Amino acid sequence: MTEDGSAIEDTPIDGLLVIRLKQGEDPRGTVREFYRSSAWTVIGPASPVAGPWLQVNVTETRRGAVRGLHGEAMNKLVGVVSGGAMGVYLDARPGSPTFGAVHTCQLVKGVQVFVPRGVCNGFQAVFDDTQYLYCFDQEWQPGMPGVAFSPLSPDLNITWPIPVDPSDPAQISAKDRDAPLWSTTPGTT
After folding, report:
1. What span, in angstroms and rounded, lies between the C-alpha atoms of 4 and 95?
2. CB atoms < 10 A from the CB of 117, how many?
3. CA dihedral defined by 42, 46, 48, 50, rounded to 10 degrees?
4. How confident is the model at residue 21 (pLDDT cuts 50, 70, 90)?
5. How far apart, in whole angstroms, are the C-alpha atoms of residue 121 and residue 148?
6. DSSP string, 89-134
7. pLDDT tier at 13 (50, 70, 90 boundaries)?
8. Phi/psi at 74 (nearest 5 deg)?
9. Alpha-carbon span 31 to 50, nearest angstrom
10. Distances in whole angstroms, Cα of residue 142 to Cα of each of 62, 87, 146
11. If you compute the radius of gyration of the chain from its CA atoms, what whole number of angstroms results?
């Protein structure tokens, strides 16, 4: 629990954290902080969850569309600001004690995930116009180190909440669909 009352949950992937934010509600609606660096000192004063965050992106995604699985060499803090999604995370870090582990979670407003560098991140929007926010501890650069795997890799046993038609570019990009299968990664068999 953080000093502001948010809850932090460990996952089966080393370093991947699910954060449930404290919310305030009144007749006008809801208020929640998306981020406050001082709240994360409970994890440790040098915790990467405390940032700094150097780039923030937002995607707006149609219901049923899948993005990912991408594992860049940077830490990420992700969450939805509108709509909802199923988040999927794959530990692709060679030498990690949880290498190959997959974790899924429902992402709704007020739930964030801290994704350590090298852990792949992907999601499927379960509502139209889902807005998915990414905070990065580095600015993205062309040619930046990273890995990508097909979110349709059968050996990952991901059950998407909405069936994915691999031939429908509105559901999955050719780049994501045609990324390497997880089973082609050394050390996975």
Report:
1. 35
2. 18
3. 60
4. confident
5. 9
6. EEE--TT-TTTT-EEEEEE-TTEEEEE-TTEEEEEEESSTTEEEEE
7. very high
8. -155, 150
9. 21
10. 26, 25, 11
11. 16
- The pLDDT tens digits for 54-87 are 999 999 999 999 999 999 999 999 999 999 999 9
Structure confidence by residue, pLDDT tens digits, 137-188: 999 999 889 999 999 999 999 999 999 999 999 999 999 999 999 999 877 7
For 69, residues 6+ apart whose C-beta sits below 8 A from its C-beta are: 88, 90, 120, 121, 122, 148, 149, 150, 151, 176, 179
From the list 35, 70, 89, 132, the catalytic residue is 70
Are residues 108 and 156 in contact, defined by beta-carbon separation less than 8 angstroms? no
The answer to whether 84 touches 107, Cβ cutoff 8 Å, is: yes
Catalytic residue selected from 35, 89, 132, 134: 134
Please count the CA atoms within 13 angstroms of the CA of 41 that sit on its side-chain side.
7
Please name the residues in contact with 52: beta carbons below 8 A apart, sequence gap of 6 or more: 37, 137
Judged on CB neighbours under 10 Å (0-12, 13-18, 19+), 27 is exposed
What domains lie within the chain, and their CATH numbers?
7-184 (2.60.120.10)
Q: Which amino acid is at 78?
A: V
103 catalytic, yes or no? no
